[in-house]
Amino acid sequence: MILIINICEERLHYLEFVKPIEDILRKEKIEYQTIYYKKITDKELLNKKLEKIIICGTSLKDNEYLENLDYFKWIKLPKLKGAAASSLGEKPILGICGGMQILSLIFGGVLVENKEIGQIKIQFEKKFLNFEPSLKEVYLLHNYAVINNEFEVFASSERLRGREKFKLYNNPCEVGSKEFKIPQAIKHKIKPIYGVLFHPEVRNKELINYFCKEG
Amino acid sequence: MKLGILFSGGKDSTYSAWLAKEFGYELTCLISIFSKNPESYMFHTPSIKQVKKQAQIMEIPLIIQKTKGEKEEELKDLEKAIQKAIKKYKIEGIVTGAIQSIYQSSRIQKICDKLNLECFNPLWQKNEEEYLAELIQNKFKTILTGVSAYPLDESFLGKEINSEFINELKKISQKYKINPAGEGGEFETFVLNCPLFKKEFNIINKRISSTGENSWKMELEVE
């Protein structure tokens, strides 16, 4: 069973950011359960049928989840004890857009301002889930990127032309350089935790399928 | 949250508006773009003037913006219309009927971002066949007012989207690879009745014209 985590503050955004993922799973007859991130309890996390977790994205204006990262502490430090905690810590997780930001921030990453809207081509340098090294068209809709050395970068986009510095989220200082690239697909160096800044439910549905079945 | 609906009178924008209402949002105003360019990349054109009557029957104020429909320039007119809606009705978000078109949705996302508005696309990535079935289930009476993909021809104009039409379209879309929801411009629609309307429209006049090779449209007058 796949646990789909909805991070949308606005109810109507469920149809845009969560339902398309449910539809992909339903089509493949993959069992799933969807829950809003503030309502996750030990019951969902300890469910013996739980195999994998997907954290969905949300709209450009919705940054509420960034102020509520404590709800995701279970990803790094399950408050459960013994075998259950150990087992939960090994469940594969796929974070999409805001979901990728959450995964990176929970493991100590840095959020940087980086608005990208629309379809672009990105180069996968190494095999990522079922994506072979190649140029892929992806759909982007985000205000922020994340940087974290605990994650390996598999694909990145060039920074936006004309920008030389990146502002830290909620922080007046600036970081970055001309060579800076935006991580678009990442994997934790030890854990089976994956993040994509693009939206695979748009144009790259096979990535979600593969994660659920094989990832 | 007060929402402005990008409204063309066709099934996608009307169904999106209905979904927003079902989810508890306030449909504060409708925003319609009257494009002089029938080939507009952004805006639906057949029977567009009838949105005035649809707005009346829904008792929702309507903002109309005219545009020449030139690529990219038409976006400035859309932005103007949304600005009017912000000023007059204090809307906090926009609802669109985008399903698959990244071209349309990303442009509207950028305008909403610039104007600090939420952007809702309740039909985004929706399975086309499931969508058409939902329209019928939720009592949307919708007819075709434009076709522009072989083998759809003028005989399809005026056809109602019902089970029979869906079966016919399923066969056609498998053979000719057209989008079964018509979002690629394969066909355009007009909503005659739905749960947002106080009563059903009757067609009192219609005029069919050819708009190019394999392309026809039907201008309606309803009451």
Please outline the helices and strands.
The complex is a heterodimer of chains A (215) and B (223).
Chain A lengths: L1 E5 L7 H4 L1 H9 L4 E5 L5 H4 L6 E4 L26 H8 L3 E4 L1 H9 L3 E15 L10 E13 L3 E8 L7 E2 L6 E2 L5 E8 L4 E4 L8 H9 L2
Parallel strand pairs in A: 1-2, 1-3, 3-4, 4-11
Antiparallel strand pairs in A: 5-6, 5-7, 7-10, 8-9, 10-11
Chain B lengths: L1 E5 L4 H12 L3 E10 L15 H8 L3 E6 L5 H17 L3 E3 L6 H13 L3 E3 L7 H10 L3 E7 L15 H14 L10 E7 L9 E10 L2 E8 L1
Parallel strand pairs in B: 1-2, 1-4, 2-3, 4-5
Antiparallel strand pairs in B: 6-7, 6-9, 8-9
Architecture overview:
The complex is a heterodimer of chains A (215) and B (223). Chain A is of the alpha/beta class and 215 residues long. Chain A has one domain: Class I glutamine amidotransferase (GATase) domain (Rossmann fold), CATH 3.40.50.880. Chain A is built from 6 helices and 11 strands. Chain A has helices spanning 14-17, 19-27, 42-45, 82-89, 98-106, 205-213; strands at residues 2-6, 32-36, 52-55, 93-96, 110-124, 135-147, 151-158, 166-167, 174-175, 181-188, 193-196. In chain A, strand 10 and strand 11 (193-196) form a beta hairpin. Chain B has 223 residues and is of the alpha/beta class. Chain B folds into 2 domains: 2-120, HUPs (Rossmann fold, 3-Layer(aba) Sandwich); 131-222, putative n-type atp pyrophosphatase, domain 2. In chain B, strands 3-2-1-4-5 form a 5-stranded parallel sheet, sandwiched between helices. The two termini of chain B are 32 Å apart. The mean pLDDT of chain B is 92. Classes of the chains: A alpha/beta (215), B alpha/beta (223). At the A-B interface, helix 2 and strand 5 of A face helix 4 and strand 5 of B.
